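Internal ticket - ligand job 742, beta-D-galactopyranose:
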Amino acid sequence: MRSVINFNQDWLYAPRTIALTAPDSDFTPVTIPHSNALLPHHNFDVSDYAFISTYRKRFSLPESVGRRRVFLDFDGVMTACEVHLNGQRLGEHDGGYIPFSFDITEHLRSGENVLQVWVDSTEREDIPPFGYVIDYLTFGGIYRDVKLRYVEPVYIKNAFVRTQAVMSAEPKAELDLWIHNHLPDAVEVAVNWICDYEAREDGPIRAALEDPIEARVHLPPMDTIRYTCPLDVTTAKRWSLDDPQLVDCEILLSAFLGANTAEDRMAIRFGLREAVFRPDGFYLNGEKINLRGLNRHQMYPYIGIAAPERLQRKDADIVKDELGCNIVRTSHYPQSPHFLDRCDEIGLLVFEEIPGWQFIGDSDWKALALRDLQAMIERDRNHPSIILWGARINESWDDDALYRATNELARELDPTRQTGGVRYFQESTFLEDVFTFNDFSNTIVAPKHTPHLVTEFSGHMFPTKSFDNEERQVEHALRHARIQNAAAGRADVTGAIGWCAFDYNTHIEFGSGDRVCYHGVMDMFRLPKIAAYVYASQIDPEQRIVLRPGTFYAFGDRDNYGANCDFDFYVFSNCDEIEVVIGDESMGRFQPDREHFGHLPHPPFKVGDGQLWHTRRLRVPDGKITGFYQGQAVAEVPLATDKLPRALTLSADDAELRADGIDMTRLAFQLVDKFGMRLPHAHAVVTFDIEGPAELIGVNPFPLVGGQAALFLKAKQTAGTVRIRATAQPYGFTAETEVNIG
Ligand code: GAL
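stdout (structure tokens):
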């Protein structure tokens, strides 16, 4: 039978090249996913992580091998590596964003085995995305999961469910299996498959698999064949954004080896949906959906790109639930399988693309780009959330031969999805199905080609820090609102994906010099700037009421609104109406600004016309914003005028972590006013104390700027309760939280 075993624990690490013969004492113990360097969240240099490091793992086989083959599967190692087992070289892999495997069967020993991996995290010009400058950091290490996989000598290599005629009365699906026979003789196999909606009523899938064999296949020796099974999906529910129904499919392969049968079972998951870009819009299951989204880089403060499953999944939740997006672009490379799994589960659409940035290298480099495309599609084509393959290097020049080849390959590997290819000029050979365009015009230009999707806007045109003044933060927010509004208003634009969701680390050639691009609607800690509320407020009010002031409610800072001394402010909300009360006096009720933002489901509210400024002369008391939905008051936000820090808050995203040595949660902290609102100009030193089986990842004490930041809490391998206590000086505020490790 097949076994897939988590191989993340009990590795050794050294931040330099270590000989095979060197003792273990040259290393320190680590758990995968691992970053080759822990860094501050800004003000560090590429040289702090761009070096060669060594990983070692001693292991005895957890199961006996028998006639099975054993593979070592790496989900991602940045940027290149060379792998040795028991002193023998297994091979190397170049490229940090795709998975790779080694068949280690012939190299295994019955007692202890020693695996050693040299990881080259330098910016290798021969490997995409390198060769020119790039606007992001790649970091280094064995940063995605490692697994040990046992399979029978006749096994399934890959499986792909192609759905067809999804909107017809008789939807169809075919399951393509790539079956490999590693034996020197031809063999007969029986293939059986079952989908969970077929089995749900009668019990578990495994029971259903005892049913009679469905198909017989003849396999030649030492070869891989493709075999297609029809799936009955007539009664399967469709996958949609509001009801993301997934279908689990289990495949059983029984190979007849003389008197024995070798069984290989494999589970996959897919969704039944029709996703198509047409010249007049994007349609999901026949319904036209205006795409509204953000780009996501995979990096985090301190840990670079080595984020474990929980943090990966959390990012998808943030983009969908906190930012109300219906699409995310995995700029500029294939991202974690955990992130994509969560997008499937919650109904968040994905545009995934190959690694690269504004540069195309020589023919060997191009071969790697084609290999990356193939690996991305073969890994990810069962994800219903993915609706478009990015078959171009982001913002590269036209290379018709290369991009004919990438498009042809993408269509051959996945005839069910359209292709895109991101550029920033419209005078380009349109070889893809969808013209995916980075539009930095500060509005939406008329498309030259349709279907047309805006894949970036804003970004470097208006970088904004979470601690910038209100005027800048509001203008940042309004740019996102204006451009999303303009995109939604054009019938020939399918939607817009803004740059970007989260601030990210970058090279000195970009960003603010401290190695950060402050382009996110959230900061690097995934905490909101005012622009985040533009997105959040587009959420359906039936799902969640959102009422967020786009103001710090500070009355003296005339830079904020120019010389006319008006004090208008914006409120971002999905309510129908809001009322602003200052002290006991109502400033009146306000409606969404449909005149300027009429294409957004929930336009911002503009409050003011100078009234508040005049009120201020009478000494401004505390205020209050009330949100009304369908005539009822449904939300209230108090506004404090004294602007003094009154408390420190500390919260963990998760109450429970797994005791596996790598599970992590975010610990967010804020300095707040008397009503609990963040003070964006509050600076303090926050010190953390921890008790229990976990480790703090981050800078401690943390010199807080901008009133908010986060650390991570990483579980150790023992169970227990962890207590974290934070103290903010010079104020002396304290805050506490608890997390259980189990
Ligand atoms: C684009 C590029 C992105 C990012 C962005 C900043 O040109 O594709 O990766 O650099 O600019 O605005």
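Auto-summary: The pocket of beta-D-galactopyranose is lined by residues 135, 331, 394-395, 438, 456, 459-460, 499, 519 (CB under 6 Å). The longest strand covers residues 154-164.
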